[in-house]
Amino acid sequence: MTTDDQLDPRLLEILACPEDKGPLLYFADEQHLYNPRLRRRYPIRDGIPVMLIDEAVSVDDAEHERLLTKAASSGITPTFSE
User: Fold this and answer.
1) How far apart are CA 9 and CA 7, in angstroms?
2) Exposure string (b/e) for 34-72, b if CB count within 10 Å is 16 or more?
3) CA-CA 20 to 30 A from 38: which of 9, 17, 22, 71?
4) Quick one: CA dihedral 53, 57, 61, 64, positive or negative?
5) Please, what's the largest Cα pairwise distance for the chain?
6) Nearest residue to 26 via CA among 11, 18, 38
7) Which CATH number is associated with domain 9-74?
8) What ranges do the domains of the chain cover?
9) How far apart are the C-alpha atoms of 48 and 7, rounded to whole Å?
10) Whole-structure pTM value
11) pLDDT tens across 18-38, in order?
């Protein structure tokens, strides 16, 4: 982690969902990465992204909408372009 508790931008450029291999949304303040296509959240523990399908948390419709709205309003963009 960097001094401001964010993942290294170089790491973010290569992080992808382990299941669909697509980009993720990084929510630094909530310490997770989110795949809006599969509606799964991957935790970041002690500065390490836990990119295991079995560790992902599925989110409901309300949480999905909240995360998409937050990403749009905060300028959070995918980790890479497809």
Assistant:
1) 6
2) bbbeebbbbbbeeeebebeeeebeebeeeeeeebeeebe
3) 9
4) negative
5) 34
6) 11
7) 2.20.25.10
8) 9-74
9) 8
10) 0.90
11) 999 999 999 999 999 999 999
